[in-house]
Amino acid sequence: MGALHEGHLQLIALAREFAGDAGEVLVTIFVNPTQFGPGEDLDHYPRTLDADIAGCEARGADAVFVPEAEAMYQDDASISIGESSLSQGLCGAKRPGQFRRRLHGGR
């Protein structure tokens, strides 16, 4: 989701350690609109892309993939998957649809 904090950066450093010099570490930063519930403001979610990329590079990432929502979700999706039981003990209880995804499509 971006707005990376020290915990995220430590995971990247750990991945670099596991990958070694011969391996590659790839990071995806994607502000996922489907993770926002009704009334939550996607437009005001912090976006610190320049700092995030610099942090990724400093911790050993070889590449950072930053897709736009349009590349991840197509308007013509007709297949969806969902989880409706386990999520009620998580944030699904307060965010209806949090764990429902359309394949190749948005909410």
List the helices and strands and how they pair.
Layout: H1 6-19, E1 26-28, H2 49-58, E2 63-65, H3 69-72, E3 79-82, E4 100-103
Parallel strand pairs: 1-2
Antiparallel strand pairs: 3-4
Tell me what you see in this structure.
The structure is a single chain. Strands 1-2 form a two-stranded parallel ribbon. A two-stranded antiparallel ribbon has the order 3-4. The chain has three helices and four strands; from the N terminus they run H-E-H-E-H-E-E. The protein is α+β, with helices and mostly antiparallel strands. The relative contact order is 0.21.
SSE run: HEHEHEE
> Percent helix among the residues?
25-40%
State the strand order across the main sheet. Answer: 1-2
- Give the class from helix and strand content and strand pairing: alpha+beta
Biggest pleated-sheet summary: 2 strands, parallel
Low-confidence stretches: none
Overall strand count:
4
Radius of gyration: 16 Å
Number of helices: 3
Query: In percent terms, what proportion of residues is strand?
Result: 5-15%
Mean pLDDT: 84
Shape: elongated
Distance between the termini: 17 Å
Keywords:
alpha+beta, two-stranded antiparallel ribbon, 3 helices, elongated
In short:
With 107 residues, the chain is of the alpha+beta class. It has helices at 6-19, 49-58, 69-72; strands at residues 26-28, 63-65, 79-82, 100-103.
